[in-house]
Each structure stands twice: as C-alpha cells, then as structure tokens.
Design a protein that fits this description.
This protein is an alpha+beta fold. Helices cover 32% and strands 23% of the residues. It is built from ten helices and 14 strands. Strands 9-8-5-6-7-10-12-11 form an eight-stranded mixed sheet. Helix 3 runs antiparallel to helix 4.
C-alpha cells in the first residue's frame, strides 16, 4: 500500500513538474515579452525550465522503480514524454548558450578595440581604478559610478593620454579622442502598479538616461565609433518593450546641445542635431538577453554576445550570474571577436568586456 501510494505521488509530481516546464517554455517561446503578463514568464531563465523538466524525468524513473518493487512487470524500452521534453529543452539551452562556438570561435583579429562596460550601481568600493585597469580596456563606460570612484588615478594608470566624457549618469574614459557627445534624460513614467514592499533604492521605477559619445577610432576600425550609453529603469512591473520605445522616442527627439570637443579639451555646443546612428549601445538594460525588447533598438542592432559569447554569461548578481541584463549591442559597422563577463570583485553587477573589430 505504501509503495503504491509512493509511486502515485512520484508519478503525479513528475507530471506536474514536466507540465509546468513545458507551459513556461511554450509561453516564453510563443509570447515572449509582448505583454506584461507574459514578460514575467519569458524573463525566467531557460535553465529553470530545463531543470524542472529533468526533475520530472528523475521523479518518473523513481515512480517506475517504486512500481517495480510493488509489482514486478516487463520493462519497456520506449522513451517517455518526460525524457523527450527534457532533451528538447536541453537542446534549446545549448543553442541559447552558443556552445557550438567553443569548437568554432571567431577568427582572431590584430589589435581589436577592448571595450569594458560596468554598472557599479552607485556603490562605494575600494580599488576602483585597479579593478578596471586590470582588464586593460581602451574604452571604459561606467554607469552610475559612486562619487568616490577615482577617475583621475584610473586615467593616469590606463594610458599616458586619455580622453573623457561625463554626464549625470555615465562616465566614459577612452584612449581614443572624443569628437562629439551629448545626453538626454529619458523621463520614463513610473508603472501603474507600485511595489510598496520593495525597499527604497532596490529598484528604479522611472527616469533613466541615454548619452552618446563619438570616438576617433579611425586608426583601428577605419571610422569613428558612436557609442550610445543607456540606463533603463529596473522595476519588474514596467513593460520592457514600452520602456525601450519611450527611450527611443526621447533619443529621437533630442536636438542638442551636441558638444564638440576642441583641441584644447573644451566642449563647445554646435548646431541643434540628433543623436548620431550608433555603432554600439552599452549599459544596464535591465532586460535579459534574447528578449524581444532588445530588438526594439533597431533591425540592424544585434547583441555582441551573438558574435563571440558562449555560456550563461549572466551579469547579476555578479558572483552567480543568474540574469544577463547588462549588454553591449552592435551596429553593422562593427563586430565582436571576443566577449567576456567579468566579475570585478565588487558591486552587484558584473562587467562586460568585448573585443571589437570592423564589420565584415
């Protein structure tokens, strides 16, 4: 009796876990983040559905063994639907993590440009300059750095000659000269639903900022490089596609001032002008890799991970890398020949380091 009850319980649990996995995966694939409700499902890491599916397989095997102990019966060799589902989701995970690229990595390129982007999230931390310089970036983009971050030491240690741009949210240090720059508040409205129980400062529910800096990378890439820096609100009750659309609306209506860097290092505003077309869009998007919201940035924009990344590559929390929400998106004029997520040993976010070469 006990064994029969155990078998029935294990079998029921295996069905529940497999059904939960297939429903979550199906919603993620078919609906994605087209609506706010499906966004909550779509942004669950695929690995969660894979683990649930394999848990269903294990419980199914245990239920059969419990049944065999209760009443021996001929064993069938037919694979169960639980196993088929688990293998299907595992194959999807392998494709999502680009595991085949381990065998066929990008072709090496002489002197690619090393671009490091990091969100210290306004946390006070020691050895800021040491952590950054250790990665040997040629372009460094910091989102919300703490006011104690020693950029003077960073610039001195990075290279004999460096150039910088600063906005209220972003700080950019580069070994390449700055040609133009500008920034705009995104003024994203807060969501209709507010989480009163979330500690203040844990998430951002409105605002955001976008900035651009044009660097003279002609000697290395054959053309100047325009980098958009983006910081989007993190409230989970904000529909991410709508957040990106509002951000793009603010960017496209921007008409200045565009600051033109002079030979003496000063910035002079030029004629009213929009953001130039980006070669890179970097920052904290608070949107997982693969989400439909990231495609809102444009049909020619792709994730640098898709060029040269592989594996989980999560950026938050920095140590465990559960979610990949910090990105470097690329335009058609450049490509990534290297991609790494780097835990700098401080802050909640890991940094993203890419090696950039001219587009094909």
């Amino acid at each position: 009796m006990i064994r029969r009850a155990l078998r029935a319980t294990l079998r029921a649990l295996s069905h529940v876990l497999s059904l939960f996995a297939v429903c979550g995966w199906a919603v993620s694939v078919s609906m994605g983040d087209r609506s706010l409700w499906s966004q909550f499902v779509a942004y669950v890491p695929l690995l969660v559905w894979v683990c649930l599916a394999w848990s269903g397989v294990v419980l199914r095997v245990l239920s059969r063994r419990a049944g065999a102990l209760a009443r021996p019966a001929p064993r069938t060799r037919r694979p169960s639907l639980h196993l088929v589902l688990a293998l299907l989701l595992s194959a999807h995970q392998a494709l999502d993590w680009r595991l085949a690229s381990i065998v066929t990595p990008p072709s090496p390129v002489d002197r690619p440009v090393r671009v490091l982007s990091w969100n210290p999230a306004w946390e006070r931390l020691s050895g800021f300059d040491e952590r950054v310089v250790e990665q040997r970036p040629e372009v460094f983009v910091a989102t919300t750095p703490h006011y104690t971050a020693d950029f003077t030491s960073l610039r001195t240690r990075l290279s004999d000659t460096t150039y910088a741009f600063r906005s209220p949210t972003f700080a950019v240090v580069s070994v390449f000269p700055v040609l133009r720059s500008g920034w705009v508040p995104l003024d994203t409205p807060p969501p209709a639903i507010r989480l009163s129980w979330v500690p203040e400062g844990a998430i951002s529910s409105s605002g955001g900022e976008a900035a651009f800096v044009e660097l003279d990378t002609t000697s290395r890439l054959g053309h100047p490089t325009v980098i958009w820096c983006v910081d989007l609100p993190s409230d989970p009750f904000m529909h991410r596609r709508e957040v990106v659309r509002r951000a793009l609306a603010s960017i496209h209506t921007f008409r200045g001032p565009v600051q033109h860097r002079q030979p003496d290092g000063t910035d002079n505003p030029g004629e009213p002008a929009p953001f130039p077309e980006p070669d890179m869009i970097v920052g904290d998007f608070n949107t997982p890799r693969g989400a439909g919201a990231l495609r809102e940035w444009g049909p020619t924009i792709r994730n640098a991970y898709d060029d040269a990344g592989f594996g989980p590559a999560g950026t938050i929390p920095a140590r465990w890398g559960v979610l990949h929400i910090d990105h470097q998106l690329l335009g058609p004029r450049v490509r990534a020949v290297g991609y790494d997520v780097v835990d700098l040993g401080a802050g909640r976010h890991a940094a993203v380091l890419t090696r950039i070469a001219p587009g094909r």
